[in-house]
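Data card: per-record layout.
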Amino acid sequence: MKVELTTAALQDLARLPEREAAQILRKIQWLQSGLVGDIKRLTHHDCDYRLRMGDYRILFDLIGDTVLIRAIGNRKEIYD
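The structure for this 80-residue chain is written out next.
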């Protein structure tokens, strides 16, 4: 699978502490192998899926064989 990050997702990643950002990037790289990890389909949200990494969430859509990452943030703030 191909993984792409939107501009907003890149900005979200830049705002995170360095350690968490590195962990999230590793999780995102795993998505290239397929949809692995704690992934859940979202029902009432703009994005179709979320990947959980501790207190952080990675929101993404699946478009063909491309994973489009739209937002990255803390679980308390990401769904607002």
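Known properties of this structure: The radius of gyration is 11 Å. Strands lie at 2-5, 39-41, 49-53, 56-63, 66-74.

See the next section for split statistics.
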